[in-house]
Design a protein that fits this description.
single chain; 188 residues; six-stranded mixed beta sheet; 9 strands; binds guanosine-5'-monophosphate
Length: 188
């Protein structure tokens, strides 16, 4: 699997150290707030699983899954809810857990949807951020790493559902997706 990676951006050790650091900040800010951690499926499940095990907090966990409408969605920002929250987040402190912020459209839409449910607060922790690709304002309150404009896999992030099990994060070799004739960010 790692032979399909052109460059490792973050090793497993670097990721684990960063996740622990993020958990420490979150723990300080959320003491006595009983947050609801909202993982964005599928990519964030590995990050969320590691993050929550570092949190010495009374917290709940739930998941959402959004799907974009076809290829043009990244420009239209139209999303379909595949799996909604099971938790009523009204008056609760919500912490959205994202794997990566790219165009920002997913996070923007998710924030709107959750705010409409009148939580006590809503914040975002993202492991990765590609600010150069932003189409709409979207910002993590807690951020792991900024990365350049490249398609990355590993640590929950996939290409065609593969590579999620890599413990590092790396740039996928373009020849892996070249045969499909479509850049990875338009395939999901
Ligand atoms: P956005 O709406 O911010 O453009 O997209 C966020 C989602 O796009 C992420 O949750 C992730 O599923 C996907 N994505 C964006 N960039 C990458 C990337 O470099 N690698 C992978 N595997 N997924 C990405």
């Amino acid at each position: 699997m790692t032979s399909d990676i052109s460059k490792i951006l973050f090793t497993a050790d670097q990721i684990q150290a960063k996740v622990k650091e993020l958990a420490e900040q979150i723990e300080r800010d959320y003491r006595d707030k009983k947050p609801v951690l909202v993982g964005v499926l599928n990519g964030a499940f590995v990050f969320l699983a590691d993050l929550m095990r570092h949190l010495d907090l009374d917290c709940a966990v739930d998941f959402v899954s959004w799907s974009s409408y076809g290829k043009d969605t990244s420009s239209s920002g139209v999303f379909r809810i595949m799996k909604d929250l099971e938790t009523n987040v009204e008056s609760k402190h919500v912490l959205i857990v994202e794997d990566i912020i790219d165009t920002g459209l997913t996070l923007h839409y998710l924030l709107d949807t959750i705010r409409a449910r009148k939580p006590a607060s809503v914040k975002v922790v993202a492991l990765l951020d590609k600010p150069s690709r932003r189409r709409i304002e979207a910002k993590a309150d807690y951020l792991g790493f900024q990365i350049p404009d490249a398609f990355v896999v590993g640590y929950g992030l996939d290409f065609a559902q593969r590579y999620r099990n890599l413990s590092c994060i790396g740039i996928l070799k373009p020849e892996i997706y070249a045969g499909r004739g479509t850049p990875p960010d338009e395939i999901e």
